[in-house]
Design goal:
The chain is an alpha/beta fold. Among the domains are: about 70 residues, no CATH class; about 350 residues, Na+/H+ antiporter like fold. About 55% of the residues lie in helices and about 10% in strands. The protein contains 28 helices and 12 strands. It has a 10-stranded mixed β-sheet with strand order 5-4-3-6-7-12-11-8-9-10, sandwiched between helices. Strands 1-2 form a two-stranded antiparallel ribbon. Strand 3, helix 19 and strand 4 form a beta-alpha-beta unit. Helix 22 crosses helix 23. The termini are far apart.
């Protein structure tokens, strides 16, 4: 039985043939095949069924007419949508740099162009909203994560003052604009003023990219944003409650209790959970996913408490601040993913809200938008000027402060939508009387565009000038910090690299990983193993976006290879692990006569200490460095007289500042006085007088908690700061402090520097 042909495949009139074209092998086509895709025509000859020799089949040609009908607007295919957005993220900087348009503003404009109010290429659907929400939470989380907690504590009252300035002045301007200029009711005017007061740190990525997140103006702006947003949202809650008659006494009790419970849960429980997790999980992917969970959990808890989710995300950043140092690989991953995915999606989503047609809807919308833009800009600028005069900030800091506080997105949108949806009654014609009318809604959208533009330009100008002055500031060190890390154990490499990164400043550091192969060995696997170790070190540094130089040396003596690398590369610091023993000559090391010390450190380390004059750190790690809460530093008498005193002191202080851990010095009274005299303005270290003899390590060393790290500043024999009984310290720590992290510090000392001729460092 033959089946009828599947569709009227006819030839063109040009061929002169009429009637349906008979398909070959039509037995394979069943009536159920109601529609055969056009692509099948590739295999169908135009002379099928004709008598005589067949001509070759004409190939099917893909034309715009055949492709474009498959693409409908707005795009619904998730692949095309994602591709388009990522193409914008990729191409925007290339184009905008030529036009001198800030990157953030360009993404907002791009969102307006492709959005439903532009060319309608992409709808602002649930996927865009989800990604944008994640981006906004990401920005707030990063602002809390990158904040200098010590500086935040010192400048907390400054943030409070700025928060009150940037809340009170816009509130005053908003009430005047709403009640006396636009003629709104008192409740509507107060709610409009709340829109003026709220702000969004949309320009924070600019500050982050320029590396000035710890500038005082940034700290003040971030802290002030949280304060003013909380106050603005409380105004929203109060006004809506009063306008609808729901603000009774019980409401305030419930709201206050929920806010206190939310803040306490995030700030107290999140650090405990984070420290527990990071101690037990070293997987990079799991750590990053854990961070995302904490961000959204904090946002959800804030939402449950009646606050905006951005408040919870910021508090989560503060809670995780000390557990994620700024130079850690995890921090690099967080910033990378945020800047590449989440934050661009948020900015493009903001652009999709912009409706240029609001200009043409009514004169009232234009009038309201002009009043809102002028008044809110003037109010935020006055607040920044008042803060500058109060705390004697520079003009660039004032500009940056104004730029960071002038953008209105998240809280403003939330407030205007709430006010728009509150219906107070109806007109005789049946039209709803809203707390905030449609003109305010349209004016808010235009205000978002204008304030984001102003914020981006102002922030970029101020941040750029501050970054330039910081790079060219007086007293800037020009000497590099060259750190050598001999590696021999796979499991210890990441810890040694992490310590090296935390000890040095990114601007000056150069890291070198060294592995030594015995040139008398015939084992072919040694080179593969050495290369694997070096690759691990390079990978560990690359995770923190730091370049690591790998050095592979062939030498019969490991010590000679290390000493040679120190001299060739002008090494300033050595970072080694405990128990890095390797076969070496059994010789008497001058100044190190005891077997106890040799057993604890090993012959290789002893020989390196005797022959290298650079600052040396011998590290025993019992837990990840970011999970350390306190660093105890035991300093011997007359340590301040050694040539390398300032070098190791700067390193330890930088590490404590980078990780946010507490620093406690234990030293004799005269040394404590010297340490106190050398403290810096931002130094919040503690100083304890310790006059105990080094003959008894148990009495000398402080009591340690589970999350403490011990630093012991040592000395080579016959040097100024050498103490009798110091040789017992390594063996004592090795036997009794295995559950704690500790570091032995051997500074540059007089005699060694002159003999080696390599101590030429400007560390002031």
């Amino acid at each position: 039985m033959r089946h009828p042909p599947c569709g009227p495949y006819r030839t063109t009139q040009k061929s002169g043939r009429k009637g349906p074209a008979k398909l070959r092998n039509d037995a394979f086509f069943r009536p159920a095949d109601a529609a055969v895709p056009a692509i099948i025509a590739i295999f169908v000859s135009d002379n099928a069924g004709r008598a005589g020799p067949r001509r070759p089949a004409r190939p099917y040609r893909m034309t715009p007419q055949t492709i474009l009908p498959l693409i409908t607007l707005p795009l619904e295919d998730p692949i095309l949508k994602f591709m388009l957005i990522m193409a914008i993220v990729l191409g925007a900087p290339l184009l905008l740099n030529r036009l001198k348009i800030p990157y953030l503003l360009g993404l907002i404009i791009a969102g307006a162009v492709i959005g439903p109010n532009g060319f309608n290429l992409v709808l602002r659907d649930s996927s865009i909203i989800l990604s944008g929400t994640a981006g906004l939470l990401y920005i707030m989380f990063l602002s809390g994560l990158e904040m200098d907690m010590n500086d935040f504590k010192r400048n907390g009252w400054r943030s409070a003052v700025f928060g009150l300035y940037t809340f009170a002045v816009p509130m005053l301007f908003g009430i005047v604009a709403g009640h006396y200029i636009l003629g709104y009711s008192l409740y509507s005017s107060i709610l409009l003023a709340g829109l003026f007061a709220s702000q969004t740190l949309i320009a924070y990525p600019i500050v982050s990219r320029l590396g000035i997140t710890r500038d005082r103006a940034v700290t003040i702006a971030v802290g002030g944003t949280i304060i003013t947003d909380i106050l603005a949202l409380m105004v929203l809650t109060v006004v809506v409650g009063l306008a609808t008659g729901q603000a009774d006494t019980g409401f305030w009790y419930r709201f206050g209790a929920s806010v206190v419970a939310c803040v306490a849960a995030i700030l107290l429980l999140f650090p405990l959970i984070g420290r527990w997790f990071f101690k037990r999980c070293s997987d990079n992917v799991s750590q990053y996913v854990f961070v995302l969970v904490m961000v959204f959990l904090g946002a959800y808890l804030a939402q449950l408490a009646g606050l905006e989710p951005i408040i919870g995300a910021f508090l989560a950043g503060l809670a995780m601040n000390r557990l994620i140092p700024g130079t850690s690989p995890l921090m690099n991953r967080i910033e990378f993913v945020g800047n590449a995915i989440f934050i661009p999606f948020f900015l493009i989503g903001v652009g999709m809200l912009i409706d240029y047609r609001a200009f043409f809807k009514s004169w009232e919308s234009i009038e309201v938008s002009i009043v809102m833009i002028v008044m809110v800009t003037a109010a935020k600028y006055i607040a920044a000027c008042l803060t500058q005069k109060t705390f004697r900030l520079s003009r660039d800091q004032r500009t940056l402060l104004f730029g960071l506080s002038s953008a209105h997105v998240a809280a403003t949108l939330a407030a205007v939508m709430v006010g728009y949806n509150v219906v107070l009654g109806r007109t005789p014609e049946g039209e709803p009387i809203r707390l905030l009318n449609e003109a305010v809604l349209n004016g808010t959208i235009l205000m978002i565009l204008a304030t984001c533009t102003i914020s981006t330009f102002a922030s970029q100008r101020g941040a750029h000038n501050i970054a330039i002055k910081g790079a060219q500031g007086p007293g800037e060190r020009t000497t590099g910090e060259h750190v050598l890390i001999p590696v021999s154990r796979q499991e210890k490499i990441a810890e040694l690299v992490g310590l090296s990164i935390a000890l040095t400043k990114q601007k000056y550091r150069s890291l070198y990983a060294l592995n030594v192969i015995d040139n008398q060995s015939d084992d072919p696997e040694l080179k593969k193993r050495s290369q694997s170790l070096l690759e691990t070190a390079v990978t560990a540094a690359a995770a923190a976006d730091i370049h690591m130089h790998s050095l592979l040396r062939y030498d019969v003596n490991t010590v000679n290879a290390i000493v040679s690398a120190v001299r060739e590369r002008n090494i300033t610091d050595l970072v080694l692990g405990m128990h890095e023993n390797s076969p070496g000559p059994n010789v008497q090391i001058p100044g190190i006569p005891t077997a106890a010390t040799t057993a604890a450190l090993g012959k290789t380390l002893q020989a390196v200490l005797a022959q290298c004059a650079v600052t040396t750190f011998i590290y025993h790690s019992a837990q990840p460095l970011p999970t350390i809460r306190r660093h105890h530093v035991v300093v011997p008498r007359k340590a301040e007289l050694e040539a390398g005193f300032q070098a190791w002191l700067l390193r330890i202080r930088h590490l404590a500042h980078d990780t946010g851990a507490q620093l406690i010095f234990h030293a004799p009274k005269t040394t404590v006085e010297h340490l106190w005299g050398r403290r810096r303005r931002k130094d919040i270290a503690q100083y304890a007088v310790c006059e105990e003899t080094w003959d008894n390590p148990a009495a000398l060393l402080p009591e340690l908690r589970s999350d403490d790290c011990l630093w012991v500043v040592m000395s080579r024999r016959d040097r100024i700061s050498y103490q009798a009984g110091m040789y017992r310290i390594p063996a004592y720590l090795d036997e009794n402090m295995a559950d704690h992290s500790f570091v032995l510090v051997y500074p540059v000392q007089a005699g060694h520097a002159e003999q080696q001729g390599i101590f030429n460092m400007n560390l002031g």
